[in-house]
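Appendix B. One record, verbatim.
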Amino acid sequence: MAHGYRTLQHWNQWLSQQFLGKKVLETEEQQLSSMLERHFGKHALLIGVPSQHRLLQSTNIACHSLLSPLVSKEKIETYIESDFHELPILTGSIDLVILPHTLEFIDNPRQLLAEACRIIKPEGLIVINGFNPNSSWGLRHLFVKHKKSVPWGGNFTHPKKIKTWLKLADFQMEQHRYILYRPPMNYPKLYQKFHFLETIGSVCFPRWGGVYSIIARAKVIPLTPIRTKWKQQLSGIRISTSISGHIARLSK
């Protein structure tokens, strides 16, 4: 499936209008609130679609920004309209970057992840949410007939691959959790009846959750002092105290 502006539009509508999409947002917000409760900073940036702006409320950081190529109809304090090829953000200027399923609906996920890592401060965090291929959500993704449908037409990337990309970008893994153990049913009453699977799944099959959340921290590269090696002998040099400040050699 070719991803682009229209795919992101459908994804944004699915999150805001479909019952299952609303449940994904609600559950992810609760999960991120638990995972980020001890993280502080000045700037948090979410790279995604306007419907996901509420996920920024899960962090204690006061300054929130949303970056998206879609035109936002919602009232968002700081909204950056931009594509995902080159982020218009200074290098090392953001304390927290959130990528909620964004890598699954674009054609250049590796490039976007590299750009997201670039703008994070040393010791800053990156959060990535994705649909788990090894789950009931992943099975539906495999057997869906209409590959253009959202979210089933997305690229469900395995968390191991995401971790490999992050390690290559000098990020250290901090947390990895799963949520949504119920099958992806878009019927409220039936969905509620399977609530018990959330408890059973998290205990018995912890890696079979429909959505995974990965948090990684940017490593600080230590500065190695460079020792200056003098090749000229200083014993035969004196510095004049005159105003001209010239250097004269002592006569032997």
